[in-house]
Every structure is written in C-alpha cells, then in structure tokens.
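Q: How would the structure tokens look for this protein?
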Amino acid sequence: MKELAEKFLLYLNSRNYAARTLDVYRTALGEYLEFQPDAAADKFSRKAIRAYLAALSAKGLSRNTVITKISALRSFAKYLTDNGQLKKNPFLLLPLPRKEQKLPRFMTEAEIATLIDGLKYEESVSGRKSSLPGFEKRDRALLELLYSSGLRRAEAAGLSVGDVDFYGGFVRVMGKGSRERLVPVGERALGALRDYLETRGTPRPDEPVFINRDGSRLSGHGIAYILHRALYVTGADRQLAPHSLRHSFATHLLNRGCDLRSLQEMLGHQNLATTQIYTHLSYRQLKKVYDSAHPKARKSVVKRGE
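A: Here is the predicted structure in token form.
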C-alpha cells in the first residue's frame, strides 16, 4: 500500500498539483497507513474507512480537518480503482461529514492601511540586519500585491518578473490546477513593486519577483512569516494568515459594488459557489449601512409614560 501511495503522489505531481496540496495528501495518506499498517490495496475497504473515520472523530479534530484527510483518501481510492487495484471504490454511497461553512476572516480597510503604511523595520525587530537589499521594500511590495490582487500565497511565490505587466496593470498568475489567469494590479502595488525591483538592479524576466535572503525564490512559508512579522511591527494584535489578505480583497471589492462574476474571475475560482461565501460578509456591511441610514431601521427608545 505504501508503494501505491508513492505512485499516487507522483501521479498528482505530474498533474501539476500545488506543493501544499501534495504535502496535505502525503500527510493524510501517511496517517492512514499508520492506522492500517498491514492493509493491502484489496483490504482498503469501507469497513476500514469507517473505523478510521471513528478514530479521527475520537481525536476531537474539527469537521473540516477530518474532511480534508478523507478527501485525500477518496482521491487515492479513485486512483486505485481507475488503475485496477480495487474492484470497487469503497467511498461509493459512504456518508461523509458535511463541511462547516465558516466565514473567512478579513481585515477592515483601516487595518489594511495600518498594516501596509505603518510597516517600518528596525534592526532589533528582524533580529539581525538583512543581507537582502530592499528588505523592507520587498515586504511592502508583497503585502500591497496580496491585497491589491487577492493572490494566494503560492501564486505570489510563483511569480516571475516577466509575469508583471507594469504598463497594462496586470499580473499573469498560475493558479490551482495549472489554470492561468490575468489579475488586475492597482497603481500603489505596481509602484511598490517597481521600488523593490529597482533595489535588485535589472532582474531578468525569468527571475522570481520575491526572493529570500539567499537570493532564491521566496516560499509560501516565507510569505506567512513576513505577514506575521508585519503584524507585529505595526502593532496589530490579530493573528492572521496570508489568505486573510485575499479575503479582505474580496470583501472590500464586494462592499464597493464589484459584481460576483468579475470577483470569481479575479480570484480564480472554478465555481461561483466558492465565491458566494463573500456575499455573506458583504450583506453584513449592507445591513450595517441600512441600520445607520434608514429612519425606521433603528428601534426607537420610548420612555415609560410617554
């Protein structure tokens, strides 16, 4: 079974699955094989999966974490079935937990302004003086771009200099499933990118946009670290992930009148239903505006005896 799992991961890699997705699948498969160490492919049964589901539930994991692990196993089962290793897919007609619909965390426009405009590093903050020219300018350009275009951190990490169209105001992004798309970039973000790239002289079109201390491509983990450091430096007390800037991008666009189809295209969502979760956040803003503006929206306070 372990050998088949390795072949499955190689197959996903050949299909250009994201590195983060591969890591999640590798971990999920490894955990299942630890739970069923002697399981052969023909014993990858519905009974075994039910037992594993019960074990995951007993650990007190969140429903979405369980679903992520089971999704990896379900993809693996389909691979085994398609390649003749299993006679029947054990996940067929197997009831699985439903995904919890959590509203994404996002920052207000004022918080975004504080995060980006207030970014100023001191040597004591970073621990040591960076050997990378334009250290502060790099991080500012990164945050500006993440918020301006709503990129996933893997998409930002994968950008090369030639992917940025400074004249047209777009970036060419390779998204999930190797789907390429063009995403608009605001003037502030473009200006921050120009300032940062100028510190590197004249980088070639095939060079990474964002590099680390060693001059190699910045990783997704590096991007997460930069955001956490920026939150600390600017005095923000919210522990957010890079995806929160993507959520903020989407929420603020909807609040200012962007249509859902255009937002779907910019975010790179295959299904409109994925984008629609942001409408819940936008509706909250609409209700807030309504309550403050409509004369009959607020409950009037009537004193006793009047």
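The longest strand covers residues 170-174.

The mean pLDDT is 81.

Upvote if useful.
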